[in-house]
Design brief:
331 residues; two-stranded antiparallel sheet; alpha+beta; 12 helices; Aminopeptidase
């Protein structure tokens, strides 16, 4: 593809050309020379405004995107699992994506997220009931919506996707709660390796680990009094990037070997309020002031040393309470 372009001429890229260039250069983007780097940037600039938010299903309308999701974005190991997760608007599992469609009608997904919709008021505390639940009709309005397996292979596409998911979920179900269930890890690092770096000698019980989790999740100020950041990349995405609140800490997750090894089984519920103003304020509070926005239920467990570093945000959609500390979460 690059050989077919005149040197330095990227102003007339078709969308199909831009996608082909991006797919060729993205795996080696850190090794590009100046000319290829300029071409790569031009491809990104061509693709970015063409992204569409699509709600995927098992019908034929988006049939061409299914295999591309499997090929281009981190997805389930077996294609059959991907199709099983798609669902449709009326079921408890829905897949959503940002994608572009080129001039020949071929789809290129830039990010994808799978969501689980529940008609019970509890936030999730384990992943297996979500992953292993069958696709069933909701039978009523959703009360809790859980995005999981958020994957992106394009700059900023994940943030764009979650912003659209937020609008879609609350447009479909205004009384719902949008909440993640996120392990305290990303890639091959996480809470466990951070704890080792601190030289902490702790027993692996839930209460002691939870105390250290607050050390891990508290915003850390950058050099020379700069903006605050997080030790955890997933928290950075949800709280510093999108303005979610920290609703609950979930210890002793036994569902994943990697989560046990890299996060000591610790997970978090990040909740997205429906009000965009709250999201903006939460983000500003985190990044500029180093303040963690938490639920009233979680605030009761915040160590005293951090009482001046948290903002407690009650969240009851339409005045109806949601259980942030459930004993059970089953489909």
């Amino acid at each position: 593809m690059l050989d077919s372009l005149p040197p330095g001429d990227t102003s007339e890229l078709s969308l199909g050309q831009a996608v082909a260039i991006y797919e060729e250069l993205a795996p080696k983007k850190h090794l590009l020379g100046d000319d290829d780097r300029d071409t790569f940037k031009a491809a990104i600039a061509r693709i970015s405004p063409e992204q569409q938010f699509v709600v995927l299903s098992q019908d034929e309308h988006f049939g061409g995107i299914h295999q591309r999701l499997f090929d281009a974005v981190h997805a389930p190991k077996r294609h059959e699992q991907l199709v099983e997760r798609l669902g449709d608007h009326g079921t408890n599992k829905v897949a959503m994506a940002m994608a572009v469609q080129d001039e020949d009608g071929r789809w290129f997904p830039t990010s994808v997220v799978y969501t689980y919709w529940n008609d019970r008021p509890q936030l999730p505390e384990r992943i297996k009931p979500i992953l292993k639940s069958p696709i069933v009709a909701l039978g009523g309005a959703a009360r809790v919506v859980v995005p999981y397996t958020i994957s992106s292979n394009f700059p900023k596409a994940g943030e764009t996707l979650i912003g659209n998911v937020h609008s879609f979920v609350y447009g479909q179900s205004p009384d719902a709660v949008l909440s993640t269930l996120s392990p305290l890890r990303a890639g091959n690092k996480g809470f466990a390796s951070w704890l080792n770096e601190q030289g902490a000698n702790v027993t692996l019980n839930g209460e002691e680990l939870t105390d250290h989790v607050f050390d891990y999740l508290m915003p850390v100020q950058g050099a020379n009094g700069g903006i605050f950041r997080s030790n955890d990349p997933v928290q950075t995405f949800h709280m510093a990037g999108m303005g979610a609140m920290l609703a609950a800490i979930r210890p002793d997750n036994q569902d994943s070997r990697l989560d046990l090894e890299l996060a000591h089984g610790m997970m978090a519920n990040y909740v997205y309020p429906a009000d965009q103003h709250l999201l903006a304020m939460n983000k500003e509070r985190f990044v500029q002031e180093g303040i963690l926005t938490v639920s009233p239920e979680l605030a009761a467990f915040i160590p005293e040393r951090y009482h001046d570093r948290v903002f407690v945000q009650p969240y009851e959609p339409k005045g109806r309470g949601v259980d942030f500390t459930p004993d059970d979460f089953t489909p």
